[in-house]
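Job type: complex structure
Entries:
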Amino acid sequence: MSDIKKFMYVNRKAPYGTIYAWESLEVVLIGAAFEQDVSLAFVDDGVYQLCKGQDTTGLGIKNFSATYRALGDYDVSKLYVEKESLEARGLTLDDLMPLTYEDADDDYAEKDSIRVVSSQEMAELFEQSDVLFNF
Amino acid sequence: MSILHTVNKSPFDRNSLESCVRLAAKGGAVLMIEDGVYGAMKGTTASDMVTNAMKDLTFYVLGPDLKARGVDEGKLIDGVKVVDYNGFVTLTVENDKVQSWL
């Protein structure tokens, strides 16, 4: 396929308080189904979407955090998290769900999907994308 | 490659403008629309952030949104350019893509 575009989904909202995070995940899966080059960015409160230990049983709504673990199966393996946003919230990589994918170009070795990047690196990633979706 | 960033939230209500300025690469354009126009006013707690970012970014504000809110152009930060709807269209054409900071 020659018309593959680089899609960047930018997530800036915490889960559950608004519908943005879930909607983003739905659109990400649609983009992946059309075999586009999909990346996700997590900045500001968006980093809370990836925190481990989410349990919504008391809320009576779906805990969609498990869906992030399925992204690797849809060839969505680039989840960029802004370092500054993590630090501002007192979080580290250890507070996030371990997300992996199998690298088809490397004998299906299991690799980490989450990559922590600086603000500047994130700005460059936005520049290199063809289309930006903001949630 | 350049990005047109649109900001439609007041900087006193959301961090959209702050995050835009932090994550916008040099050479980008920032257009303040809707409640985002309050970020274009001088003498606020957000003004310095905008002024300091002007070395890397060009700032625009949508005139009809200013007028609707009774914001006089004389109250804008020096260097912020006022555009009309045609100017908005021109900015979208001049840049490769748009990033809307919700």
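Summary: The beta strands of chain A are 6-11, 37-42, 79-82, 100-103, 109-112, 114-117, 131-134. The interface with chain B takes residues 10, 12, 20, 43-44, 82, 84, 119, 122-124, 126-132, 134-135 of chain A (CB under 8 Å).
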